Amino acid sequence: MENLIIGDRDIELVFIDGKELNPKESQKVYNHSPDGFNWGYGGSGPAQLALAIMLEFTDKQTALKLYQRFKWDIISILPQTNFSLKIDIKKWIKERR
Prior knowledge:
Layout: E1 3-8, E2 13-16, E3 19-20, H1 23-29, H2 44-57, H3 60-73, E4 83-87, H4 89-96
Antiparallel strand pairs: 1-2, 1-4, 2-3
Helix pairs in contact: 1-2, 2-3
C-alpha cells in the first residue's frame, strides 16, 4: 500500500496520509535537528524527518537501523521546495531488513 508524504516548505510541515508528522517524538529518540524537519539534502533536518517517518512505521530498533539509509535513498533527493511523494514505506522497510 502506498503512502502519501507531503512536505510544505511554506508552513514547514510534513504530512503522511493526511496526518501531520510531529518532530518531537523522533527528537526524544535522537535529536538531530532542534529546528525540526527539512529535506532535499543530507543534513540534520532530513535525518530528523527520516527517523520520524521510520518510527511511524516500525519499532525503535529497526527505525534506528534504517533511517540514515532512508534519508539518503529518499529524503535527500526530494526537491528543496514543496513535495508530494507516493511510496510504499512498509515495503521499503521490508526489503531492507
